[in-house]
Amino acid sequence: MNELEIFKKRLIYRSTYRGTKEMDTLLSKFVKKHIDEFDKTQLDELDKFLDFEDNIILDFYYHGIIKKNINKNKISELFKNYSA
Fold first, then answer.
1. Which residues contact 24 (CB under 8 A, 6 or more apart)?
2. Which of 54, 55, 81, 82 is the most exposed place for a label (fewest CB within 10 A)?
3. What does DSSP assign to residue 52?
4. Among candidates 31, 68, 33, which has minimal Cα distance to 51?
């Protein structure tokens, strides 16, 4: 297994075990759907996106509330338009 595949598996894991069932489901489905389409730059952006706390991601997704520059990332835009 190469370094990129290991990185992808780590991102999938981080998206699946967030702490709340809602975020586990929402983020893991999003990541699993798109991860193989992402290039290295987008994977790095996804890694940064997953650093945001659940409440910041949820507020952004459901209410369009922008905190901590969550919208400064192409992944966040793709996620905002994602429907599970």
1. 15, 16, 17, 18
2. 81
3. S
4. 68
Residue 64 backbone phi and psi in degrees, to 5: 70, 20
CB 47 within 8 A of CB 11: yes
Domains of the chain: 3-80 (1.10.150.250)
CA atoms of 1 and 58, how far apart (whole Å): 33
pLDDT digits (tens, 9 = 90+) for 26-52: 999 999 999 999 999 999 999 999 999
This prediction's pTM? 0.92
Short-list 42, 47, 24, CA closest to 78: 42
Query: How do residues 64-80 score in pLDDT, each as one tens digit?
Result: 999 988 988 889 999 99
Distance CA 22, CA 2 (A): 31
List the alpha helices (DSSP H) in the chain.
3-16, 21-34, 40-49, 54-58, 74-80
